[in-house]
Structures are given as C-alpha cells and as structure tokens.
Design a protein that fits this description.
The complex is a heterodimer of chains A (114) and B (112). With 114 residues, chain A is mainly β. Chain A has strands at residues 5-7, 10-13, 19-24, 31-37, 43-50, 65-69, 75-79, 88-95, 104-105, 109-113. Classes of the chains: A mainly beta (114), B mainly beta (112).
Chain lengths: 114, 112
C-alpha cells in the first residue's frame, strides 16, 4: 500500500483480556518495527523484523507480549492478559532494511486498558 | 547519561522567528542521524536526515558535529504550522537502522 496501515486505530479492553494489533507495512519494505509510546514519553522499541531473519525481540517488556510477521508482510502484535500499564499508543513502522532514510510510521493503535 | 538528550522545551516563539534545537548522543559509533516531527496525538514523520557536511531543506538546516556528538536543527522564518515536537534520532552504531535511538523531543509552539 501507499503507507503503513494499522488497525484498529483505537482499542479499549478490559484488564486481563488479550488484544491483537495489526500492521500492514509499505509494499516492498523488508524491515518492520513495533514501538510504543506512553503519554508524554519517548518511543520505546519493542520488536524488529528483517526479511526472513529471526526477529529482534529484545524490547518486549514481558512474555505477555509477542509478535508475528507472516509472509514477510503483515505483522500482528499480541498482548495477553492486558494490564493497565500496557495502555499506550502502539506504533508500527517499516523501512527498506538498512536504508538511511529512516522509518515510515503508521498512525498507531491507541490501546486503553480499563 | 541518556543515549540521546534533548532540551524538552517548550520553546515559544513568534511567527517569523528563527529557532534552534540541540541534541547530544552518547554512542560515538552512531552513523545515521535524523530529525523527526511529531504533531500532537499523531505518529512521528521524518523531517530530514542529517549529513556530515550539514544539509538544508527550505527553511530547515541540520548540522552534525561528530567530534562533540552533537546535532542541531535550525528553523528560519517560523510558521504557525511548525508547532510540533521535534525528535532527534540516531542509529545505535551497528551499521544499519535496525535500532534507532529516539530522544524525548523538543516542543515548539509558534505564536501569531
């Protein structure tokens, strides 16, 4: 597609429920990243996919967080047993691998855990 | 010391003013540098890359000082639409942009 697409744009869930967030990167971009941004905070790296390589999961805050990228394109970030501290904007970005032109972000999913 | 440090501001300037933002980074191996802009409740968007020789894009000028590990962004003739948070971003020195390190941003408000 023309840009990075994320869905849903907003999600309100009850504490303890599981949620799935979707990201559809720019066609042809081999690298895909998940970040989260809490209110008034900087971007926190979560996970990185590059082609068929094993993902870099070093930023995932706990084992309740997992992500997949199917067929080198669409990615799903899953949060199990959500907690209130998981409330944040979850941003997906894609890039041309090692491009020095930086990332293109999607508009994010605003997750609120009540 | 934070990996990327920025003055959080806010900077309040009148239209037409010139304003400069500074950023320092801790990893001397960093090779790629960017300024992103983030509007309130929106995603970050790439404003410009920063090159060793310095670069200009219209009213925006970026400078890099590797010896001091310092990056700057200069905005001339500020417009109301320049009001946003400006994020300084560097790579982590591993040769690609797999891990970009993000500053917390500098807030700019341009007033009429």
């Amino acid at each position: 597609g023309a840009g990075v697409s994320q869905s849903p744009s907003n999600k309100v869930t009850e504490k303890g429920k599981d949620v799935e967030l979707r990201c559809d990167p720019i066609s042809g971009h081999t690298a895909l990243y998940w970040y989260r941004q809490s209110l008034g905070q900087g971007l926190e790296f979560l996970i990185y996919f590059q082609g068929n390589s094993a993902p870099d999961k070093s930023g995932l805050p706990s084992d309740r967080f997992s992500a997949e990228r199917t067929g080198g394109s669409v990615s799903t970030l899953t949060i199990q047993r959500t907690q209130q501290e998981d409330s944040a904007v979850y941003l997906c970005a894609s890039s041309l691998g090692g491009s020095v032109r930086g990332y293109t972000f999607g508009s994010g999913t605003r997750l609120t855990v009540v | 010391r934070k990996e990327v440090e920025q003055d959080p501001g806010p900077f309040n300037v009148p239209e037409g003013a010139t304003v400069a933002f500074n950023c320092t980074y801790s990893n001397s191996a960093s090779q790629s540098f960017f300024w992103y802009r983030q509007d309130c409740r929106k995603e970050p968007k790439l404003l410009m890359s920063v090159y060793s020789s310095g670069n200009e894009d219209g009213r925006f000028t970026a400078q890099l000082n590797r010896a001091s590990q310092y990056i700057s962004l200069l905005i001339r003739d500020s417009k109301l639409s320049d009001s946003a948070t400006y994020l300084c971003v560097v790579n982590n020195g591993d040769g690609n942009n797999r891990k970009l390190i993000w500053g917390l941003g500098t807030s700019l408000a341009v007033n009429p």
